[in-house]
Every structure is written in structure tokens, then in C-alpha cells.
Task: structure prediction
Amino acid sequence: MNSNGEEQGSRSHRTEIIVALIALVGTLGSALFANWDKVFPPNKHDQPSISTPSSPLPTPSTTLPTSSSDLPRPNIMLEGIEEYEANERQWKRYGSAFL
Result:
């Protein structure tokens, strides 16, 4: 018959084998999960088909402004803008060396 020490030794080995198997299954499972797209590539039937139009799309016509007066004026809210606009009208009326 087996002595008490031999039974504990076989239980110890059995536990170590079970722990090693659990670790192996976990490692292989996580590797499979991380590389799922490489192990099981997508089928060509699953991918949406891209169709090209029979005629090219029309290009939008753009017209560039010919002068600065054709450009839209930005709407900027600044303190003192009314004073600046009043001064700008006065500069245009009387002329300025800086404009």
C-alpha cells in the first residue's frame, strides 16, 4: 500500500499538472483571441462590394472673387469695433497715409 507521503506527493503532482493545463489553455485562448482576424480571415462574401459609377461625378464650378469688395466681410465681435468703423469712415473720407 501507499504510505501517506506518497499520496500527498501524487496529489501535489496532480495539482501542478492541472494548474499548468489551465495556464496553457488561458495562454492559447488569449493568443487566439488576439489574432482572430489572422486565424479566421473574413470571407469575400462578407465584404460589401464597391461599385464604381458609370459616369464621372460632376465637378462643382467655383468662381473666385475678382476684387476685395467681392469677399465676404468677417463678422468679428470686438470691443471698440464701432469706434474703429467710425475712424475707418473718417479715414476714407479725408484720406490717410496708412491706408
Summary: The chain has a mean pLDDT of 76.
